[in-house]
Amino acid sequence: MSISGASELMSERPHLINVAYRLLGSLADAEDVVQETYARWYALSRPQQQAIESPGAWLTTVASRICLDLLGSARMRRERYVGEWIPEPLPEPTSDPAEHVTLDDSVSMAFLVVLDSMTPAERVSFILHDVFRYPFAEIAEIVGRTPAACRQLASSARRRLGTAPATSAPTARQAEIVRHFKEAWTAKDIGAVVRLLDPDATATADGGGRALAAPGPIEGAEAIARHYITLATLAPDDVTLEERLVNGRPGLMMHRNGVTGTVFAFDVVGDRIKSIWAVRNPDKLRAWSST
User: Distance between CA 160 and CA 121 in Å, rounded?
Assistant: First the structure.
């Protein structure tokens, strides 16, 4: 392959990362998938490579199939996962944007959590068609179903999304609510925290057995407020809480001595926080080490 051909091949990497992250909810796993995809390309003989009409399409197909297999095995792994599982949070890109996941509504934490409730075939069919606009004929080759079956899978996925919480508030309003939450939390003002939460709000933490975290979701504004005020009371004096974008939405990052300990993502509906996701598993915070 010529240098220009190799360059064109590598130019597909950002697209593959974007596809794989949306399919898996893990940046680390997405990067592994892309590495394996390129390894399979270079394992082909020169005649085999030359016979492929569209290398970019071939790479996407292979990456999607690897993701489909991983999604199946992930369900078994999560049965053994300690505590709640939350998708890996993404920081705001700080270097070349081409090397990062595009931060749009399809990577918001609320969206990814609903995606995680889908079957592997539903998720692949929906993401490839509705997010990346692949035709069902191509998706069928990846999923191993007929185009009509893939259409039904995507439709089923949309129905799952239709049962998700209401549309999130505009970004500027979300940022304002998250800022007020931070201020009320650090001031240990339990009443103010309660007023910022939806009465039926939920708070979920993911420690993965690597960090202390509530074993299950905390439900209800008052219960969440009491829990978070307790955390603030027990936190060391040198812990810092900063406003950061998390998966493209206003969130918070807690760190101590330069080490990120927790990343908080929020779903703000109207003027209230509907959901809080706190990621504490250090394996999922590697991308935040330099932020």
Answer: 14
